[in-house]
Amino acid sequence: MSEALHQRWTIGSDHNQVWGPDLVSGAAIAISHRYHVVSGAGAVANMTLPYPTFSGEITLLFLGAATTVLTGNIGIAVTATPNQAINFVYNPALAKWYPVKY
């Protein structure tokens, strides 16, 4: 994981590791990379930061109908449909993750 943190998700090198380990939806998930696959249908209340000074966007590919809830560091609740990718942006001033709507 420290290698990924050091790279700050650099794209295009031989050490490109933008996809992190698969995660299981639940009360808290640990973000370590730019992209993660999330399985299960549990409610996510907290997404830990990949490193302390993180500010930016991630993408979660939900395999199940998971939800995010407002009881932790999520700013807007969303419900994912199976096989849906949702981008989230972290705002350090508010200490919250927000889904990105395109």
Annotation keywords:
disordered N terminus, globular, five-stranded mixed sheet, 102 residues, two-stranded parallel ribbon, Jelly Rolls, mainly beta, 6% helix, 1 helix
Question: What features would you describe in this structure?
Answer:
- It is a single chain.
- The longest helix is centred in the N-terminal third of the chain and has 6 residues, at 2-7.
- The protein has a 5-stranded mixed beta sheet with strand order 1-3-6-8-9, with no helix packed on it. A two-stranded parallel ribbon has the order 2-5. Strands 4-7 form a two-stranded parallel ribbon.
- The protein has one domain: Sandwich (Jelly Rolls).
- The radius of gyration is 13 Å and the shape is globular.
- By secondary structure, it is mostly beta strands.
- It has one helix at residues 2-7, and strands spanning 23-24, 28-30, 35-39, 43-44, 46-48, 57-62, 67-68, 84-91, 96-99.
